[in-house]
Specification:
The protein has 367 residues and is of the alpha/beta class. The chain is built from 9 helices and 17 strands.
């Protein structure tokens, strides 16, 4: 088949703007359908981005020309919507996390294997220019043997700016499940699979107040830890320290440092697709800045890579197996917080091949 890959977007909330803006600009894709429980919201997004079809998630999955469903629903619906699309013979790109737990995540991957379709999962920031440049530098030996990582994400909390933030403080979210996938996916692509975790978690407030939008002043309950500190051990030897917090007046996003035997590498924000990389060699007091090379387009790069892989019969990079492993790490963190023990990580994955520096999302490759 030489036509562009037909895509449906299910879930037309805040994040759908960036996805739709990018997906509708990639010549290897055709966005054919927008679906949402709120039909008016789906109609508005379809009109804004020139998408011809509008309706329910079931109608999106049943569309005869859709090959790939982009699932942007809330975390609690990820597995159900993915299973519905798989049952209709469609491949699925899930927003993160893959599912609320590894049991549901395994079921999604098993159903896809039986149906002969694919599962991909955010974050696709690991395919952006900044992090791909870091991968190439590590592979070149610039920092020697990678040994450890320090990652920090501190913030007062998304209720300050998000108009409907409650879901970000429920099961399947919080700083661990909402922001953790960016940092853990980055570490996984650099270090490979993890095998053990230890962690502490705290919840600073039992409730929070919406700070902006039409519901400003509304109080809601907090159901999950809002400060996480974790230690992660990797099968190949490296160790990582991870801090994720919605409790900090100091906003500090995107701090990722990889320490090697010869140098330290400072990565750009793993929640972004661009950003330069900095290197500081052992014994030196200054940093060398290395401009990022690659695709900075934004959310949707993983969908495009998956669509191209579908046509070429090759492996896509932001795979369901990688996402399941990240979910497994997060579950191990949660178990460790509850039990006060080191917890094993049972799943594994094949480290994806790095993108070429000249990989271009705006060139048509499906002819």
């Amino acid at each position: 088949m030489s036509d562009p890959v037909g895509v449906a977007v299910t879930g037309c909330g805040t994040i759908s703007d960036e996805y739709l803006r990018n997906l509708t600009s990639f010549p290897d894709l055709r966005v054919l359908f927008c679906a949402d429980l709120d039909l008016d919201r789906a109609k508005a997004q379809a009109a804004r981005y020139g998408v011809p079809g509008v309706g329910s998630a079931a109608q999106a999955a049943a569309h005869p020309d859709v090959e790939l469903v982009v699932n942007l629903t809330i975390p609690a619906a990820h597995a159900e919507v993915a299973q519905q699309a798989v049952a209709a013979g469609k491949s699925v790109w899930n927003e993160k996390p893959l599912a609320l737990d590894t049991t549901a995540g395994r079921a999604v991957l098993a159903a896809a294997a039986r149906a002969g379709v694919r599962i991909g999962c955010a974050p696709d920031t690991v395919l952006g220019a900044g992090l791909q440049t870091a991968r190439r530098l590590i592979a070149s030996g610039m920092i020697g043997e990678p040994r450890s990582a320090l990652t920090l994400m501190q913030d007062p909390g998304p209720e300050r700016w998000h108009h409907d933030p409650e879901f970000l403080f429920r099961r399947g979210a919080g700083p661990l499940f909402d922001m953790g996938p960016y940092y853990l996916s980055t570490l996984a692509t650099l270090f490979g699979p993890a095998d053990q975790v230890a962690a502490l978690g705290r919840r600073s407030q039992p409730s929070r107040v919406i700070g902006s939008g039409p519901r400003a002043g509304t109080t809601f309950e907090v159901e999950v830890p809002t400060h996480i500190a974790a230690l992660i051990g990797y099968t190949q030897g490296p160790a990582a320290t991870l801090v994720l917090s919605f409790d900090s007046p100091l906003r500090r996003h995107g701090f990722v440092e990889i320490t090697g035997t010869e140098a330290t590498l400072s990565l750009p924000d793993p929640n972004r697709f661009d950003g330069d990389v900095r290197v500081r060699a052992t014994g030196r007091d200054d940093w060398e800045t290395i401009p990022a090379a690659g695709a900075p387009a934004g959310r949707g790069l993983g969908v495009l890579d998956m669509a191209r892989a579908l046509r070429a019969g090759t492996a896509h990079r932001a795979s369901g197996e990688l996402a399941l492993h990240v979910l497994d790490i997060m579950e191990a963190v949660a178990r460790s917080i509850t039990g006060g023990t080191f917890e094993p990580v049972a799943t594994t994955f094949d480290t994806p091949v790095a993108l070429p520096a000249d990989w271009d999302p705006c060139v048509r490759t499906i002819n």
